[in-house]
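Here is the promised in-class demo. Please do not try to memorize the tokens; focus on the logic of going from shape to residues.
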């Protein structure tokens, strides 16, 4: 390390105290790699400030020394956005010690939190006040509010409540020069010019460090109905979703699609999964509907809607959970799919989104295209189809060489992405862009859009010190 770096680290140590800075290789290691191992980097130090003032002082010190900063939350986004580059110039700034719930206002239906609060802690605090924070996803025990905001995460309830962008009223952000923007307004209406918070949401830490947020809360549902439905094909699933929304006063909160192969993988590899229906079906939907009050009529309404769907050929069989534990068992199948794929050799992942009405066309075209590109490939499409977000994951042909198959990752993703773009979809519906997808940006954003993004970046971060080399090509 140079003496300039030593001097910066001493300065940072004086701001955060010796407990707030990690410089030993073993201590830094968990912050310098993602758990899938695809991205690894180096850094002179991982800094863990405990307050907004400390974040601001650390960022100002780095800006003064011309040293870039990589913000990091739970490190679950898996596209390399939260990992420094190999050269080891960047300081990693982890928000994990900023984990206070600052305020919960049940009458205003808001909660104000530090950016490092983990999603499950927010959900639990809301439930403790008889409120709902309706963001829920597989990484919720680790992902932090700052990371969720910075990637504009969705999840199982996006269909009903929107994604993180829709669940936020105000932000507090440390800017690249160390100034603090206090935008922690708890207003549902504010017509005073540019909505600055939207700039930082989905920016993946390239414009500043989110240190606090005002989150929207909702009434807690009093009744939840969960159904596992066999459907003949994805087109029927999409038609079923529209019918259920119409028939139940738009009370569908989750609507997850999975193919038979996904279910078979789960049954084969994950202990505790069961096949909920007597006969196999090529496709299934797991759906959840919620109501604000308890009534038999709500469940009856769902049964009637499913009955009508059977008559129209949109569904062929279904089971409704009779208890909370049965509902959990049905969700366990959905959650097991991710784990199960690991046991089937290499899996090439595509987290894409398509306008809901064109999802069926996408799956049909993409399955045919990848089969032509790689005979024997095993597509396992599943996901939050209610908001058009599909995990179009592709397991290797049986018996194929895993390394050789995974070496084709980019080439096979291009085949899928071409269809996504043709259908006006997005090649990143989860996780963000990070390092992984930034070179795709010129293909998916117009020159005007890229110019605007670069202009925003230059205005807020003229020295290019905030998470450099991410998102923008
Ligand atoms: P990190 O991975 O640490 O960081 C993500 C990006 O945000 C990085 O660029 C980082 O620099 C930046 N960043 C982090 N914190 C801050 C901050 N405070 N200020 C500024 N920038 C910051 N995503 C979905 O959208 N929907 C899903 O259903 C979903 N399911 C998942 C399931 C699993 C099992 C896993 C592993 C991931 C899943 N994800 C999903 C992806 C991931 O959980 C989300 O992208 C999540 O929002 C990342 O949060 P994090 O705290 O881990 O952020």
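The designed amino acids, position by position:
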């Amino acid at each position: 390390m140079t003496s300039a770096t030593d001097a910066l680290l001493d300065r940072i140590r004086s701001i955060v105290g010796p407990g707030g800075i990690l410089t030993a290789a073993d201590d830094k290691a968990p912050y310098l790699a993602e758990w899938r191992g695809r991205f690894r980097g180096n850094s002179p130090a991982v800094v863990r400030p405990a307050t907004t003032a400390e974040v601001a002082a650390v960022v100002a010190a780095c800006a003064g020394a011309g040293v870039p900063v990589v913000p990091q939350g739970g490190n679950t986004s898996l596209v390399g956005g939260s990992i420094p580059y190999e050269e080891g110039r960047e300081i990693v700034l982890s928000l994990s010690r900023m984990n206070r719930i600052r305020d919960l206002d049940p009458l205003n239906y808001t909660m104000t939190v530090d950016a490092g609060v983990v999603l499950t802690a927010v959900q639990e605090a809301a439930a403790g006040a008889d409120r709902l924070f309706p963001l829920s996803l597989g990484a919720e025990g680790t992902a932090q509010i700052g990371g969720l905001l910075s990637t504009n995460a969705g999840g199982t309830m996006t269909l009903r409540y929107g994604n993180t962008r829709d669940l936020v009223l105000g932000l507090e952000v440390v800017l690249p020069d160390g100034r603090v923007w206090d935008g922690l307004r708890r207003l549902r209406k504010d017509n005073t010019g540019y909505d600055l918070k939207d700039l930082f949401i989905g920016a993946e830490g390239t414009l500043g460090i989110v240190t606090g947020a005002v989150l929207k809360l909702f009434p807690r549902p009093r009744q939840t109905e969960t159904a596992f439905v066999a459907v003949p094909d994805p087109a029927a699933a999409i038609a079923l979703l529209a019918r259920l929304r119409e028939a139940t006063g738009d009370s569908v909160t989750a609507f997850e699609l999975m193919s038979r192969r996904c279910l078979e993988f789960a049954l084969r590899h994950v202990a505790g999964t069961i096949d909920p229906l007597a006969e196999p079906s090529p496709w299934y939907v797991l759906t959840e509907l919620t109501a604000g009050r308890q009534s038999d009529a709500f469940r009856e309404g769902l049964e009637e809607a499913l009955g009508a769907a059977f008559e129209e050929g949109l569904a062929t069989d279904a089971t409704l959970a009779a208890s909370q534990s049965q509902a959990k068992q049905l969700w366990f199948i959905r959650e097991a799919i991710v784990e199960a794929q690991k046991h089937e050799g290499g899996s090439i992942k595509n987290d894409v989104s398509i306008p809901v009405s064109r999802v069926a066309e996408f799956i049909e075209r993409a399955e045919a295209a990848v089969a032509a590109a790689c005979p024997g490939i095993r597509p396992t499409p599943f996901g939050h189809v209610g908001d058009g977000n599909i995990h179009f994951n592709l397991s290797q042909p049986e018996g194929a060489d895993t390394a050789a198959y995974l070496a084709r990752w980019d080439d096979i993703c291009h085949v899928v992405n071409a269809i996504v773009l043709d259908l006006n979809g997005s090649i990143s519906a989860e996780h963000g862009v990070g390092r992984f997808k930034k070179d795709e940006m010129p293909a998916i954003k117009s020159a005007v859009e890229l110019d605007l993004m670069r202009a925003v970046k230059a205005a807020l971060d003229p020295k290019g010190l905030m998470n450099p080399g991410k998102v923008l090509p």
